[in-house]
Design brief:
Strand content of chain B: 15-25%
Number of strands of chain B: 19
Mean pLDDT of chain A: 88
Low-confidence stretches of chain B: none
CATH topology of chain A: Immunoglobulin-like
Order of helices and strands of chain A: HEEEEEEEHHHHEEEEEEE
Oligomer: heterodimer
Structural class of chain A: alpha+beta
Number of domains of chain B: 2
Largest interface: A-B, 42 and 39 residues
Radius of gyration of chain B: 22 Å
Number of helices of chain A: 5
Structural class of chain B: alpha+beta
Strand content of chain A: 25-35%
Number of domains of chain A: 1
Shape of chain A: globular
Distance between the termini of chain A: 62 Å
Radius of gyration of chain A: 23 Å
Number of helices of chain B: 10
Strand order of the largest sheet of chain B: 12-3-14-13
Number of strands of chain A: 14
CATH class of chain A: Mainly Beta
Largest sheet of chain A: 14 strands, mixed
Distance between the termini of chain B: 71 Å
CATH class of the largest domain in chain B: Alpha Beta
Order of helices and strands of chain B: EEEHEHEEEHEEHEEHHEHEEHHHEEEEE
Shape of chain B: globular
CATH architecture of chain A: Sandwich
Low-confidence stretches of chain A: 16-27
Mean pLDDT of chain B: 96
CATH architecture of the largest domain in chain B: 2-Layer Sandwich
Chain lengths: 296, 375
């Protein structure tokens, strides 16, 4: 009997050794920083399920409650998020994935959309502002992806899509005689659209902002950003793509420049919206370089 | 939080921002006793402002039957329940406002109605309180009661929507105190929907932003009353400007009804927003209910209203309601006539305090026919 037990223990140890020496996903873990790899196909990797992502180092970020400014998040939500990054000469692409058992892709009264955001400082060196939305005169740059913007771009936020059985007599713009005047009327009857609010008429599922402290989030027209997300088996897989600055020596987002990034996530089902979110502090971020690294 | 003075509570209270009253404050008086719930105001507003996509469910103006009518469902009783019983003491509010009762991590005590809560705008319509025993309706006074409550945004002095917006997207116009949502800046967080105790901000799913009553400010700027006032069949409404009690003017219709005669009262003053739509309370409703809705002065205001007929100035002013499309900044009663004046003190309308009676003979001698009401 003793021999049998000894044999069983030896077999278990051997199996463990074999498994631990084999090829494992953990071998791609990026310790201590998010490392963006250079690729020639940055644009192609906007698909969150592109095979290339499997070859990229992954950083597992731990998120915590936004409990600094009111309104605060009362109950912890998305606890962790995996991030991978690639770049080419023009684009930086981040692939975020995190567990979320509910797929919230619309925003209607009292229902909110799932969302994620990445944040970078706009300066290099030790003078970076706090990751909590930056501060006065020390802006941060943020790109946010929202599931509802993606739904809206796919036409899924119309009244007929949301409420298939709704009976509507007519909308005033439908009385227009031609498409130009109809377009004009559609804007007039949608005040936010008429005021130029991208929420009303998103051109992308991701938007770029700058912020200089809580409540100061402001869209940036000049920074091109794109987003694409897919929910699969209780997980969101999202790419956030932003155009890199053109050979700007003062920008933190250039190869070889050590900088930081921060992440945020919103679970719509839990009522997460705006400042009610999970967030990370600054995480070291590096776009790989073949030359000597610049210090932060 | 800052400390601000709320004259409706008779005390200072906590508010998210420091007090900064506008140059003048838009205000209105609704005479509940005259409302017939025809909903013409509701439609006038709806067709003017909320006929676009995503606005289908919105009623910036609505009329509900109290005690069982709600739009959205249970909007007031839910918050009253959250706030719990509070105390008034000789016109001084000893209880907590929704700013002072805010839970940790929140700016305001509030809740967001569910989507379906907006689905029953006519719930409780014409329902009376209590059962009517067989035959009881033949013998007045009737124990059963109900009344119609017309509601718009109160353009509060201390708006909860404004306090709750983490982006500062809501502002109070310094020139007239009208509260607006910046449609460019709003990101649709719906914090204002949660915070407004009157539930008069609405999320538009089509634009992804919140929207609310704008007091028809393009009309106000031209000296005209809003659409829901102009179209009121029951002539229950008057719009003008309110001063603080110590600066009340005898010839200002709102000041006269609110401060001087204390006949018109704010809706749920205990919430602490210093709302600027004032109601002449219904005369046939139990005091407990009136006090809950309009504060401790409500029973006295209802009694005073019953005597209005004997008072030339008061009945003169009340006869001006609904008689002009123009904003009534000042008024006067001269002889048998009540006169309304605009901002420049130019008369805009003159009405008889007592409508003359004409008796038409049943025989029309010109056409040689008998005219009667029934064939």
């Amino acid at each position: 009997m003793r021999k049998l037990i000894l044999l069983f223990v030896v077999a278990c140890v051997a199996i463990l050794l074999i498994v631990s020496c084999g090829p494992r996903k953990e071998s791609l873990k990026s310790a201590g920083q998010v490392l963006a790899k250079r690729t020639e196909q940055g644009q192609q990797m906007t698909n969150p399920f592109d095979k290339g992502w499997e070859q990229m180092p992954v950083y597992s970020a731990q998120l915590k409650l936004q409990d600094i400014t009111e309104p605060k998040l009362a109950t912890p939500g998305v606890a962790s998020m995996d991030v991978r990054a690639v770049f080419d000469d023009q684009w930086l692409v981040l692939r975020l994935d995190w567990p979320d058992s509910t797929q919230d892709t619309i925003a209607v009264p009292s229902k909110f959309s799932d969302a994620a955001a990445v944040e970078f400082p706009t300066v290099i060196g030790s003078d970076v502002p706090d990751a909590k939305m930056g501060k006065d005169q020390k802006p941060v740059q943020i790109v946010q992806w929202k599931a509802v913007w993606q739904t809206k771009m796919d036409g899924g936020m119309s009244t007929h899509s949301l409420y298939p059985n709704a009976a509507i007599d007519h909308y005033p713009p439908e009385a227009a005689k031609d498409s130009a005047s109809r377009q004009l009327l559609e804007r007039q009857y949608a005040p936010a659209w008429n005021a130029g609010n991208l929420n009303a008429h998103p051109t992308s599922a991701a938007k770029a902002y700058v912020a200089e402290g809580f409540g100061s989030l402001t869209p940036v027209d000049g920074l091109e950003a794109k987003g694409q997300g897919e929910w699969k088996s209780g997980h969101w897989y999202v790419t956030i793509t932003q155009r890199l600055p053109v050979s700007n020596a003062s920008s933190p987002l250039r190869p070889g420049q050590r900088t930081y990034m921060a992440l945020a996530a919103w679970d719509g089902s839990a009522g997460d919206v705006g400042s009610r979110k999970m967030r990370t502090p600054w995480i070291p971020f590096l776009m790989e370089s073949q030359t000597k690294l610049a210090t932060p | 939080m800052a400390r601000v003075y709320n004259w409706q509570l008779g005390r200072e209270m906590s508010y998210w921002y420091a007090g900064n009253r506008p140059k003048r404050q838009w205000a209105a008086v609704f005479d509940i006793n005259k409302c017939i719930a025809c909903q013409t105001c509701t439609l006038a507003c709806k067709t003017t402002w909320t006929s676009g996509r995503g606005q289908e469910y919105m009623f910036w103006n609505n009329v509900e039957t109290k005690p069982y009518g709600f739009y959205p469902m249970a909007w007031d009783v839910r918050l009253l329940d959250m706030l719990q019983a509070q105390q008034w003491n000789n016109g001084h509010y000893d209880g907590q406002t929704i700013f002072e009762a805010a839970p940790a991590g929140e700016r305001v005590l509030g809740f967001r109605p569910e989507e379906r809560d907006y689905s029953y705008p006519n719930v409780g319509e014409d329902d009376v309180y209590g059962n009517v025993d067989k035959g009881a309706y033949f013998t007045p006074p009737h124990a059963a009661w109900m009344f119609y409550l017309a509601r718009i945004c109160n353009h509060c002095t201390y708006p909860a929507c404004l306090a709750s917006c983490p982006r500062g997207s809501i502002y109070k116009r310094p020139e007239d105190g009208i509260v607006l949502i910046d449609q460019n800046r709003c990101q649709g967080y719906q914090e204002c929907v949660r915070a407004c105790p009157y539930k008069k901000t609405f999320f538009n799913p089509s634009t992804g932003t919140s929207e609310k009553c704008i007091a028809c400010y393009p009309k106000i700027e031209q000296g005209l009353q809003p659409q829901c006032f102009e179209n009121c069949i029951g002539k229950i409404r008057v719009q003008g400007w309110i001063n603080t009690p110590e600066q009340a003017q005898e010839d200002n219709p709102i000041d006269y009804l609110v401060h001087i005669r204390k006949l018109a009262l704010p809706l749920y003053p205990q919430y602490g927003l210093e709302p600027n739509v004032y109601y002449i309370p219904p005369i046939h409703t139990p005091n407990e209910f009136l006090i809950q809705l309009f504060g401790p002065r409500a029973p006295e205001a209802a009694r005073e209203y019953l005597k209005a007929r004997e008072d030339r100035k008061l009945s003169g002013l009340l006869s001006l309601l609904g008689c002009t499309t123009k904003t009534i900044s000042y008024f006067a009663v001269k002889g048998d006539k009540a006169i309304a004046y605009d901002d420049q003190r130019q008369p805009t309308v003159e009405v008889p305090i007592t409508e003359p009676t004409f008796i038409r003979p049943d025989f029309d001698s010109v056409r040689e026919v008998i005219r009667q009401n029934t064939p």
